[in-house]
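2024-03-11 09:14:02 DEBUG pipeline.ingest accepted 1 chain
2024-03-11 09:14:02 DEBUG pipeline.ingest length=413
2024-03-11 09:14:03 DEBUG pipeline.predict start
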Amino acid sequence: MEAEVVYLCKRTAVSSLSMWPGELRRLSVLDCTMEPYSLRAVYYYPRCPPTAGTISKLKESLAELLNTYRPVAGRLHRTAEGRWAIKCNEAGVRMVEATAKGSVEEWLQKDMYRRSDFWSTFYIQLTQFERGGLAIGISCAHMQADAACLSALVTAWADMNLLGKMLSPPCFHPLPPPRVGGSPTRQHSPSRPLVDHYASSMESEIHETGRFATATFAFSDETVKSILAEAQVAGDSTTSPRVFAALAALFWAAVSRAKGKDRGLVDMAVCMDAREALNLSKSFFGNAMVFAGVRGGEIGGGRLEAAAKAIADATKAIDYEGVTDLMENGWACAELCSRRLLCANWEGLDPHLATFEQGVGPIHVSYYLEPKTLGRVVAVTLPEAQLGRLRVDGHILGYQTKIHPNDPSRANI
């Protein structure tokens, strides 16, 4: 059977200017939290003609981009103290060029297989479709960047390709330094909620085995309004749940049922971007995603308002005091993500800003978000048997949810 994807060549993209040799960027405690993991995204563009000129221009703009994004072109390095750092040298970014049969639209309808060993430290793949369209895949070691960084990197590359300049250059300043003598605003407590969650995550065991699968659930604007109404606490007209809390509550309950939980909900962790809480700019490059634990306990599986309130209460711990406590207590080297159900809020990524050619934006991104309206897309990864039960969950299907069987980020493009 003829391969659907044909790899043409492998190369290394380097910056167009020489860098200072030996420059080190030390990774923060939040970076080190993500050591075992990798991050990836795929951007699909519909009308890019399969020409050599298109790819050549992308490579040239990437070389210009790397002049500013020096850590992206570097390599992981252990310091004399045993700490991870990025050695900013001219090692460059690994790049693969490939072609694929059909068009982008046809590819998105296909069943896609998973290759867990495909993505390397910082890797870019450009795949041109024979009948039109381009896919840009990018991945990195999660220690180097979070989802917000990856999205900003692709957008900056697109700006460089289209405009010849970056509209939002990255900031590589460090996280807030440790406080001396504790917090100036309150009595320092060693048992803050974030610290407790990170500590308990280190002690918990991983029970999930077997093969995992991913499905994407799309919710329209009107549907999300209905979910928000169900998640509203009865008799409380002063506060309304946020969209993230309401949708997270819906899937928290549904996944708990898929896992066979008869009473209450499974314990969960929510992941939020702490840039605003730490007074960092949106262009801060590095990990600023922080985890907060939410106990399922006796929360009723059909009561969205109780689950949404528990999520909202947990995210309140992701403030300046809570995050700096976390960093100072040294829990950030724990292996966290695979320990329990995780729900990440990636609403601020803005992937649709990545326009490489005039008037041609991405038609799909692996962490796709509907712009402007309340409509949302939720991607869920679970063991295959549990995902099968989630697909037929009555509570979710009751909102006329559109279920897409495959997540394009799993493809080998």
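2024-03-11 09:14:41 DEBUG pipeline.report The chain has two domains: 5-163, 193-410.
2024-03-11 09:14:41 DEBUG pipeline.predict end
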